[in-house]
Amino acid sequence: MRIGILGLGRIGAFHAETLAGLDVVESLVLTDPFTDAAKSAAERFGGEVVDSPEALFAAGVDGIVIAAATDAHPALIRAGAAAGVPVFCEKPVARTMREGVEVLEAVRDSGVPVQIGYNRRFDAGFAAARAAVRGGELGRLHTVRSTTLDPAPPPAAYIAASGGIFRDCSVHDFDIIRWVTGREVTEVYAAGGNRGAGYIREAGDADTTGAVLTLDDGTLAVVSNSRHNGRGYDVRMELHGFDDSIAVGLEDKLPLRSVEPGTAFPAGPPHDFFMDRFAAAYRAELTAFTEVVAGSRPSPCTIGDALEAGWIAEACTRSLHEHRPVTVDEVRAA
Question: What pLDDT tens digit does each residue of the chain (334 aa) get?
């Protein structure tokens, strides 16, 4: 199998390393506007370097991985679909929801599978939680808690182009809540504050947020996010039902310190980066994509799935700025 990678920055190079280690992947074709980035990845992980997306398609690939800047995603997804080549694209589909919907409509009838990169769906803990919920082990759910806390904020230039914390960070929580519970979000109420980096406030964003989501069966989901968590990278989920309660992320690298007397949990060094916390999930995610390329499974995270998480992010962003509950249907209709 020959896979093309478009964009060899941090995540693109990480994907190149992962793909190079999969037995089913025979070769890579790499391209990046910064040629040195592609050449560096080729030297480290192998692969042929070409100077443009057009040259990459001409080189003959069985599937493509899009890890380029967000603004390039729509055109590259369309190009893959037009070439009849299965596509893996890092989130988001596009910078705006309107453009994302246009991409969905453009490729819907192509028959070409598109997988959007929401790696938590491939984490063993989240997969076990989904199986427990779907298998009825918890009884009826009443409360979900989902947390993503970054150890430090990204640079100012990244924040300015991110679209805000709900679109950039919380969207992972929104997607995994939908995936684990099998429910849709109907209404949100969000609040936020700025307790750290001034450039986040200057960009009109919050660095710490909380959101209460109402799911379509009445379950409440509480989402907590921050750009500042001095102890490390903290991603967890709790699911509480009438019969049982479970948690994802309660393991020895949990970046949280217990002050209960006689308690030694957690025992290991804390996670300090998302690539550390989700290394196995990324490998499983790209393994799944090779199965999509081979035609042995459908896309495990479609453009439609990604847009649903995006609508929740839009609703939370509006709720934050307008200080009121916002329904997902309201932003979808806007």
Answer: 999 999 999 999 999 999 999 999 999 999 999 999 999 999 999 999 999 999 999 999 999 999 999 999 999 999 999 999 999 999 999 999 999 999 999 999 999 999 999 999 999 999 999 999 999 999 999 999 999 999 999 999 989 888 999 999 999 999 999 999 999 999 999 999 999 989 999 999 999 999 999 999 999 999 999 999 999 999 999 999 999 999 999 999 999 999 999 999 999 999 998 888 999 999 999 999 999 999 999 999 999 999 999 999 999 999 999 999 999 999 999 8
Classify domain 121-277+309-333 by CATH number: 3.30.360.10
Q: In whole angstroms, how far apart are CA 243 and each of 39, 142, 262?
A: 55, 10, 29
Structure tokens at 294: 């081979």
What is the b/e burial string over 227-248, where b = at least 16 CB atoms within 10 angstroms of the residue's CB? bebeebbbbbbbbbbeeeebeb
Q: At the topology level of CATH, where does 2-112 sit?
A: Rossmann fold (3.40.50)
Looking at residue 2, its amino acid is R
Q: Where are the domains of the chain?
A: 2-112, 121-277+309-333
Spell out the SS3 assignment of 300-324: CCCHHHHHHHHHHHHHHHHHHHHCC
